[in-house]
Amino acid sequence: MLRAAVTTAADVAVYAVACVLLVEGQVVLSVLVWAVAVLLFLLNALPVLSPGRRSLADRVAGTSVTGIGLSTPAATPLVRTS
Hints:
By secondary structure, the chain is mainly α. The chain has three helices and no strands. Helix 1 runs antiparallel to helix 2. The longest helix is centred in the first third of the chain and has 22 residues, at 2-23.
Protein backbone atom coordinates (compact mmCIF):
# COMPACT_ATOMS: atom_id res chain seq x y z
CA MET A 1 0.00 0.00 0.00
CA LEU A 2 2.87 2.39 0.77
CA ARG A 3 4.38 1.70 -2.65
CA ALA A 4 1.08 2.59 -4.33
CA ALA A 5 0.83 5.82 -2.33
CA VAL A 6 4.36 6.89 -3.27
CA THR A 7 3.80 6.07 -6.93
CA THR A 8 0.48 7.93 -6.97
CA ALA A 9 1.98 10.97 -5.28
CA ALA A 10 4.92 11.02 -7.66
CA ASP A 11 2.94 10.40 -10.82
CA VAL A 12 -0.46 11.97 -10.30
CA ALA A 13 -0.88 14.18 -7.25
CA VAL A 14 1.85 16.70 -8.03
CA TYR A 15 0.60 17.07 -11.61
CA ALA A 16 -2.91 17.65 -10.25
CA VAL A 17 -1.63 20.40 -7.95
CA ALA A 18 0.11 22.03 -10.93
CA CYS A 19 -3.15 21.92 -12.91
CA VAL A 20 -5.14 23.44 -10.05
CA LEU A 21 -2.59 26.23 -9.70
CA LEU A 22 -2.80 26.92 -13.42
CA VAL A 23 -6.60 27.12 -13.29
CA GLU A 24 -6.34 29.48 -10.32
CA GLY A 25 -4.10 31.80 -12.35
CA GLN A 26 -0.84 31.00 -10.56
CA VAL A 27 1.08 30.39 -13.80
CA VAL A 28 4.63 30.76 -12.45
CA LEU A 29 3.96 28.59 -9.40
CA SER A 30 2.19 26.07 -11.63
CA VAL A 31 5.24 25.78 -13.88
CA LEU A 32 7.50 25.30 -10.85
CA VAL A 33 5.26 22.58 -9.41
CA TRP A 34 5.08 20.94 -12.84
CA ALA A 35 8.92 20.90 -12.95
CA VAL A 36 8.93 19.22 -9.53
CA ALA A 37 6.40 16.69 -10.84
CA VAL A 38 8.65 15.85 -13.80
CA LEU A 39 11.64 15.51 -11.47
CA LEU A 40 9.70 13.17 -9.16
CA PHE A 41 8.57 11.12 -12.13
CA LEU A 42 12.16 10.75 -13.34
CA LEU A 43 13.43 9.91 -9.85
CA ASN A 44 10.77 7.20 -9.63
CA ALA A 45 11.09 5.82 -13.16
CA LEU A 46 14.77 5.96 -14.15
CA PRO A 47 16.13 3.66 -11.42
CA VAL A 48 14.05 0.89 -12.98
CA LEU A 49 16.62 0.86 -15.80
CA SER A 50 19.47 0.20 -13.35
CA PRO A 51 20.63 -3.35 -12.54
CA GLY A 52 18.66 -3.43 -9.27
CA ARG A 53 15.43 -2.37 -11.04
CA ARG A 54 14.10 -0.72 -7.86
CA SER A 55 12.12 2.46 -8.29
CA LEU A 56 11.88 5.23 -5.70
CA ALA A 57 8.54 3.75 -4.64
CA ASP A 58 10.16 0.32 -4.16
CA ARG A 59 12.92 1.82 -2.01
CA VAL A 60 10.52 3.84 0.17
CA ALA A 61 8.20 0.87 0.62
CA GLY A 62 11.11 -1.51 1.30
CA THR A 63 10.05 -3.90 -1.45
CA SER A 64 12.34 -5.83 -3.73
CA VAL A 65 12.07 -6.74 -7.38
CA THR A 66 12.29 -10.47 -8.00
CA GLY A 67 11.67 -10.62 -11.75
CA ILE A 68 10.64 -8.53 -14.69
CA GLY A 69 7.13 -9.93 -14.82
CA LEU A 70 7.49 -11.79 -18.08
CA SER A 71 6.88 -15.48 -18.33
CA THR A 72 6.90 -17.96 -21.13
CA PRO A 73 3.88 -20.18 -21.55
CA ALA A 74 4.50 -23.80 -20.72
CA ALA A 75 4.16 -26.19 -23.63
CA THR A 76 1.34 -28.67 -23.30
CA PRO A 77 2.48 -32.20 -24.14
CA LEU A 78 0.78 -33.78 -27.10
CA VAL A 79 -1.57 -36.64 -26.29
CA ARG A 80 -2.35 -39.36 -28.83
CA THR A 81 -6.01 -40.25 -29.00
CA SER A 82 -5.90 -43.10 -31.54
